[in-house]
């Protein structure tokens, strides 16, 4: 049997053989199917891209039915168990685990860029004290594009790599500035003697002490969370990074577009929405009533459901286990009982089972962040920090892919047919 699709157009009786490659047909192969020479030809229609591959990619593999997630072939469970975030970022960007020397050079390259230009402080001063940190982060990363005009040279590999180092290094610094600004606290400079996550926590929480002592369980928990959030193939924000980047704009501007997409409550903003949901439920006794409201379509069960995972999100499994370790140190988060009861009921209720709705990466992560003293509004920022490596790996792969062009989807026009202008006195 040939790897082709034979299509019969019943409007004309014509038959077409379309090649099937890697389980896909090319949408442009449909254009030959016409009813007349003037006919543009068939277009594929897929709002929300439920069944459209926009790219080939070798970065991340997900099997939604089996609950499998692998970065460059390495299972997420093993990377979370044995790896560090910067090691994982190297893997995503370069495609292989680094040797000891490669990792040291990579860490040094990133450490040399952790400080941000002092002018950015004035930019931050312009925000109200209660500005949402994601709005501040998106704006400040976009502003970084004005400090590095050479970044526009996106076709030069060495220039791209330097911006990749800068973004991985500077996003945590900017994130900490956003947090400190909201409290009116002085900004902390990075301390490159610390590891990536410990340095971030120091910039966030250090007060007058020369170095904030971070409990090793907490810094390891944040390292694991960063590893788990580092990439997730063609999700909404990655699709934004690729689409914005396809116009050959600099990576800082593309990053701002990706972070803006992540900010939405249906995507990376869900971790914040989960905590606000748990706080609004308030007591385990109120859970059945809330579940009824979800089933009546009044509210969504935030942190549940996924476009790809129709099984338990493998990241949620690891995060739930990590939460137990964190609570050993910080004390049990009282909202955990509500989350566990929501999960218990939902996994047994036909409304959720039928729709294959399981906890996703955002369901338990916020409980850890809150127990570590991180404010709820910072949760989407805590998603953006590690996803920086994934967005940049995907952006670079898009630029290096000879098949990629500027993103410009087609449409099905449903508006009025051509008509003439109507003078005001005849309207
Ligand atoms: C992330 O794509 C990625 O990889 C994203 C991500 C990443 O790492 O980048 O994994 C991170 O964004 C995780 C998702 C975080 N979002 C939330 O937790 C918000 C709550 N979840 C939903 O909004 C929803 O599940 C989505 C957006 C995540 C997925 O939506 P889909 O794939 O478009 O599915 P759908 O909306 O078509 O839902 C199918 C059905 C619908 O019911 P019916 O109309 O068929 O009767 O399930 C229902 C939905 O109403 N449904 C939910 C629900 N999620 C889906 N009902 C109640 N609560 C929910 N959470």
Question: Can you tell me about this structure?
Answer:
The chain is mainly α. Helix content is 49%, strand content 5%. The chain contains 17 helices and 5 strands. It has helices spanning 76-82, 85-94, 100-111, 119-125, 133-144, 157-183, 196-205, 216-228, 236-245, 251-263, 270-281, 287-295, 314-330, 335-346, 350-354, 362-371, 379-400, and strands at residues 4-9, 14-19, 60-63, 68-71, 74-75. Strands 3-4-5 form a 3-stranded antiparallel β-sheet. A hairpin with a 4-residue loop joins strand 1 and strand 2. The chain is globular and about 80 Å long. It starts with a strand and ends in a 27-residue tail after the last helix. The model has no long low-confidence stretch (mean pLDDT 96). Residues 232, 235, 266-268, 270, 294, 300-308, 355, 357, 360-362 line the site of s-citryldethia Coenzyme A. S-citryldethia Coenzyme A (SDX) is lined by residues 232, 235, 266-268, 270, 294, 300-308, 355, 357, 360-362.
Strand proportion, as a percent range, falls in 5-15%
Q: What are the bound molecules?
A: s-citryldethia Coenzyme A
> In one word, what is the shape?
globular
Per DSSP E runs of 2 or more residues, the count of β-strands stands at: 5
- Distance between the amino and carboxyl termini: 63 Å
Order of helix and strand elements from N to C terminus: EEEEEHHHHHHHHHHHHHHHHH
Going by helix content, strand content and strand pairing, the class is mainly alpha
């Amino acid at each position: 049997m040939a790897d082709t699709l034979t299509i019969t157009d019943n409007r004309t009786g014509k038959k077409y053989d379309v090649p099937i490659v890697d389980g896909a047909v090319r949408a442009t192969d449909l254009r030959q199917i016409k009813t007349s020479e003037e006919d543009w030809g068939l277009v594929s229609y897929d709002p929300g891209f439920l069944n459209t591959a926009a790219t080939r990619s070798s970065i991340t593999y997900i099997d939604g039915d089996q609950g499998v997630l692998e970065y460059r072939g390495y299972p997420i469970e093993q990377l979370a168990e044995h790896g560090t975030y910067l090691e994982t970022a190297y893997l995503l960007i370069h495609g292989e685990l680094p040797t000891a020397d490669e990792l040291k050079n990579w860490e040094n390259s990133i450490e040399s860029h952790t400080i941000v230009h002092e002018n950015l402080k004035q930019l931050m001063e312009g925000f109200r004290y209660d500005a949402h940190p994601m709005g501040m982060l998106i704006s400040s990363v976009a502003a970084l594009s004005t400090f590095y005009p050479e970044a526009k040279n996106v076709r030069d590999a060495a220039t791209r790599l330097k911006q990749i180092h800068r973004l991985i290094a500077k996003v945590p610094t900017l994130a900490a500035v956003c947090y400190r600004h909201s409290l009116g606290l002085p900004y902390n400079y990075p301390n490159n003697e610390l590891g990536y996550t410990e340095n971030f926590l120091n910039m966030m929480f250090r007060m007058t002490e020369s170095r904030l002592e971070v409990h090793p369980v907490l810094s390891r928990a944040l390292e694991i969370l960063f590893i788990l959030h580092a990439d997730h193939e063609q999700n909404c924000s990655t699709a934004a990074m690729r689409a914005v980047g396809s116009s050959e704009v600099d990576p800082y501007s593309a990053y701002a577009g990706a972070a803006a997409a992540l900010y939405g409550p249906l995507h990376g903003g869900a971790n914040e929405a989960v905590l606000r949901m748990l706080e609004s439920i308030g007591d385990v006794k109120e859970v059945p009533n809330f579940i009824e409201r979800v089933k009546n379509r009044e509210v969504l069960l935030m942190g549940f459901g996924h476009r790809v995972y129709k099984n338990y999100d493998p990241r949620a499994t690891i995060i739930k286990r990590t939460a137990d370790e964190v609570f050993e140190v910080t004390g049990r988060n009282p909202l955990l009982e509500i989350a566990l009861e929501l999960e218990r009921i939902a996994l047994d209720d036909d409304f959720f089972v039928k729709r294959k709705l399981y906890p996703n990466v955002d369901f338990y992560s916020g409980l850890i962040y809150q127990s570590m003293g991180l404010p709820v509004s910072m949760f989407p920022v805590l998603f953006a920090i590690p996803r920086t490596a994934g967005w940049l790996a995907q952006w670079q792969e898009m630029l290096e892919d000879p098949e990629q062009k500027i993103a410009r989807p087609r449409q099905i026009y449903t508006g009025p047919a051509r008509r003439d202008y109507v003078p005001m006195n005849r309207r």
